Structure formats: structure tokens, C-alpha cells
Amino acid sequence: MEVDKGKGEAEETRKVAEADRDTVTLKSSDGKLFEVSKEAAARLSTVLAGMIAGGSIDDNGTDLKQIGSEALENVVDYCNKHANSIPSAALISSSISFNTAPFKEPEEWERKFVDRLSHDALFDLVEAANFLGMERLLDVTCHKISEMMKGKSPDQIREVFNIKNDYTKEELEEIRQELAWAFYDD
Amino acid sequence: MSEGARNTRRFFGASSSGAAGSGGAGSASNRDGSGIGAAASRSSDVNTGILDENVLALVFRSINFDPKALCTVARVSRRLRAVAERVLWRELCISRAPRMVSSLTGAPAAGVAGNPPPGRIVGGWPALAKLLLFCCGAASASVPGHFTGVSRFSKTSGRSFLTRRCRGDLLYVSDPCEHAVPGADDDVGAYRGVFRGFMRSRTRACLVGRRVALETRVRCPYCGARVWSMVAAGLVPRSAWKRLGAYEGRLEYYVCVSGHLHGNCWLARLTSSDGDHDGGGGGGDDSEDEDDEEEDASTEGGSDDGHAAN
């Protein structure tokens, strides 16, 4: 199988691929191909698991038209890191019952994984994870965004996310009063 | 089925149902202002991502729809406020009181796959969220309102606030939130509630039929609408005092035109601090029905505190 590997593809992929050849090839919206462990893909993405089970995986690259190459590279990177890093019993069992499990704090490597992303890349990755039904990756990326908002004032949030204040002064005061209730603690 | 599963299904429902494009394409069209294409416009229009409705819903899900964060985010821009009012407050309500929301909206029970989320609710989602999480206090006794931890709403309580001829209405009322009042021997109990489909309720028909005037000085603390005084209307049944364990006649409650209820009463202070008012007062002719669904609406300690409160 000839695969034009994506530029930033992680070392780990190669190792996994060589070890069992049990991989699937994914194609980004801009036509780049990425290889990812079938086991990890099926475990981490409900959509890919469905496609694998349903036999709709294309050996020449399964089209994922909604995902750009940068986001797909991050998805694949995440799958590979996940597959390699900690297949601990706890994690495996938690991923099975993930839907019902309470939110679990990101692991150290997951933190590093999202910390290095630009805002745009982070948002694109959230959308890709949402599209692919990747619970854990969604939690990790969304948790990162919520941390960027946490404890911040509206002004600070505007600054961090580059959002324009389009309220008038009067509206702003009105809505401030209207939404102050959550801060009247016991 | 757990709430986690329900939320997951809803968020993924759109994207995995073949039209996976709806995740990408749909959200692109939602992006504020930038009517240009999706990914391509990214680089020029920095960080449109957070303005995306799906992304915001997922972000807030990860912090269990923290009400403080939600209040803050709605103040950032019109776009964010609109998303909050259409989606985020609703999801907060569902996460705190799923059965109550499904009962109020007449939507199929949350948790069944494929059910669309309830659309609108009379008075709006922000008002219902505030009602779930904010004790109205008692203006007449100078007790200020406050954010609440856990509140229990029940239809049984609601029934005792309805006169016999209005018993067909569905009304949720919270347990009274007790407040000591400086200089007073007794405590003030503040409570709140909400009708289902108030526009078509018997209670409203009674109020309108009796030509009860709207109050001039009191407004609904949840939606800001005008209110009727049920005391002035003569629509407070004895069962309300009994249920609350309140002194007869020392109770007031208001219902707004959107069907939100708020009120307060004076409660005999019990000797044991954890005394249960229901036990003494409400037990008699107002026994629990078998099919009654009690519903806790709470800020749900664990994850909420962990992520948001600090």
C-alpha cells in the first residue's frame, strides 16, 4: 500500500504500522493521506468504528471531506499517542463506558498535546473530534477552551478570543444587571 | 440512561447521520458576520471558532454548563448571548432537571435516542435556568435573593398551591428556602415554581375571568414580566399553608404572565434545626401520590465545583 504520508506524522505511527500493518488510511479535505492504527481509530472514534465495522473503509484513503489536513494530522497524532502512551486497564475500561463516566481530567500528555495548538488549530480540532465522534478528544480540547475562559471577565474573554464588543453601553449595563444573579452566592 | 449519554447522542446526532457535513457546513454558516466559506476564512478571521454554536455547546458541556461562566459569556457579544439563549441555557436546564424540562415542554423524555431537544419554552430558557438556581428571597422581609446549591422541585408541592378547580394544571414548586430574619422570631421561607403551558392553564383562565389586576410594584424575578398576586386574587388554597408549614394568612405568592411563580411565607421556627416541614404540616390530606415525580434541580456539586466555581 502506497501512502503519501502527511508531513508531521508522528514516529509512533510507523512503529505501530510496521508492527501489525493493521491500519486505516484517512484522506483530508485537501487530499492528504494519513495512516492510523485501526485499533486506536475504532476505540477512540465512534464514527470510524462504525465505518470499520461496516466495511466502508477505503484502502486508497477514506474521504473525510469536512476535515482539513492540519486538523486530521492532529487527530491521527492524538490517536497514535493515545494508542502508545497508556493502555492501562483503567483507561481502557473507562473508554468503554465513557458516555456514562464523569468528566476525567486530561492526562499530562493530553494537556501538552492541546497546549501546543494555536487557537485556530484547537477549534478546528474540536470540530474534527465532534465530526468523528471522539468523546475523549472532545473533552480534552473543550476542557482546554473552558480553561481559557475560566475566571475571566467579559473583557478578558473578548481579548483572549478576539471578539468584538458589539453592545452599546446601555445594553451592556442592562445585561450585566440581568445576569448578575449567578454571582449572588449564599 | 445517564445524562452523559444523552448529551453525547444529541451532539453527535447531527454529524454522524450521514450529513456529517452539517457539523462543518452548518456551523460555518453560523459563524458570526463572516459569510465567507468555512475553513478558508479561518486564517483571516481569527478565532471564529469560539463563536460556533456546536463548539460552545461542547465547551460548556465540559464544565457542566456552569451558570457563572454562562452569565459571563453572554455579556461578551450579541452573538454569544444569542447562542446562550437558544442553546446553552436550555442545556443547563436539561442537565439539572431533565424530567422537569421534559414535563414542562411536553417533549419526549430526555435520554431516548433521536429525540430532538425541546425548542422553546414560555418565558425563555434563561428565565427557567435562573428559576432552577436562584432563590428569589423575600423583598417584603428584606431577604435578598441568592444563588442556590440544591433545590428540589415537585409536582406534589405544586398541587397544594392550586385551588380545587385548578388542580388540573401542572405546577412545579420548590421546597421553601429558609431564611432567618434579624429581629424576627420566625423564619421566612422563599419558594418558586413554574407552570406547564401557563397560557392554556385553568389558573390563568381564573385570573383573567376574575379580572384580577396585574401588580404595579412587583415584577417576576425570573423573566421580568408583570405578575398577579394570588392572594389578591383569592386563589391561595389552605393546602399551601399546610404544605409549607406556614402561619395561616402569612403567605404571599405571585404568578407572572409567563407562568413563573415566586413567593414567601413565615414559618414557625422548629426546635430541631433540621426539622422537616412536610412531616408536620403537609402529611394529612396531601399525601404523596405514587406517580409523583420529585425532581432535584441542583448545581450538582462534584464536577461543577471542580471546574467552575474556582
Automatic annotation (TrEMBL), chain A:
Q: Which Pfam families match?
A: Skp1 (PF01466), Skp1_POZ (PF03931)
- Tell me the keywords, alphabetical order: Ubl conjugation pathway
Which InterPro entries does the entry mention? SKP1, SKP1-like, SKP1-like_dim_sf, SKP1/BTB/POZ_sf, Skp1_comp_dimer, Skp1_comp_POZ
UniProt GO BP: jasmonic acid mediated signaling pathway; protein ubiquitination; ubiquitin-dependent protein catabolic process
- Domain SKP1 component POZ stretches: 23-84
- The lineage's top-level taxon is Eukaryota
Annotated region Disordered: the residues are: 1-21
Q: Which SUPFAM superfamilies match?
A: POZ domain, Skp1 dimerisation domain-like
Pathway the protein acts in: Protein modification; protein ubiquitination
Which function does this protein serve? Answer: Involved in ubiquitination and subsequent proteasomal degradation of target proteins. Together with CUL1, RBX1 and a F-box protein, it forms a SCF E3 ubiquitin ligase complex. The functional specificity of this complex depends on the type of F-box protein. In the SCF complex, it serves as an adapter that links the F-box protein to CUL1.
Q: What is the protein name given in its UniProt record?
A: SKP1-like protein
The scientific name of the source species is Digitaria exilis
Give the organism's phylogenetic lineage: Eukaryota, Viridiplantae, Streptophyta, Embryophyta, Tracheophyta
Automatic annotation (TrEMBL), chain B:
Q: Where is this region: Disordered?
A: 1-41, 275-310
Report biased composition (Acidic residues) as residue ranges.
285-298
Question: Which InterPro entries does this UniProt record tie to the protein?
Answer: EID1-like (IPR040267), F-box-like_dom_sf (IPR036047), F-box_dom (IPR001810), TAT_signal (IPR006311)
Top-level taxon of origin: Eukaryota
- Where's the F-box domain? 55-95
**Annotated protein name in UniProt:** F-box domain-containing protein
